[in-house]
Amino acid sequence: MPDHLEAGTLARRTYELFLPNATDASVAITLGDMAHDSPAASFARHSGATHYGLISMRNVPDGPRHPVVWSLHETMLAVTGVGDDEDVGQDMRRVIVRLLAVFFHEICAIAPGLSTSEFAVANDRPLN
Fold first, then answer.
1. Distance (Å, rounded) from C-alpha 11 to C-alpha 34?
2. Model confidence over 79-97: pLDDT tens digits?
3. Which pairs with CB-CB distance under 8 Å and at least 24 residues apart come from 76-80?
4. Which phi and psi (to 5°) does residue 95 adopt?
């Protein structure tokens, strides 16, 4: 775990992706603090989420250019794009869900309930 996390971030992990057309692609996932004063935390609270975080992609072809918000709502996981990245494609959504499962397992000391959560992936709406 990094020594320094940004305000409102409880955990962060970065995962390297092995893609044939992008040798240095990576995905960073965070667990956010629901009490933090930020647009993403506010969105999570207002949508009834129990947990939320951000997903940032670097050098991922056709990946979102801006961070994507993930939010867990009891048994439903939502992945919500922002601005031009409103539509997160099905292939990218599958990658995100797999990485989130790994992330939830790795941060079980910080958020024990996440690693044992069973959830369906929602058809989400844009965050404007």
1. 13
2. 888 776 666 777 778 888 8
3. 76/119, 76/120, 76/121, 76/122, 77/119, 77/120, 77/121, 77/122, 78/47, 78/49, 78/121, 78/122, 78/124, 79/55, 79/121, 79/122, 79/124, 80/43, 80/124, 80/125, 80/126, 80/127
4. -60, -45
Per-residue tokens: 86: 């409103």
Structure tokens at 46: 């207002």
Tally Cβ neighbours within 10 Å of residue 113: 11
Strands 51-58 and 68-73: antiparallel
pTM beyond cutoff 0.70:
yes
CA distance 32 to 85: 20
What's the pLDDT tens digit per position in 110-119? 998 888 887 7
> Using CA atoms, how far apart are residues 102 and 28, in angstroms rounded to an integer?
12
Any alpha helices (H) in 32-111, and if so which ranges?
39-46, 90-106
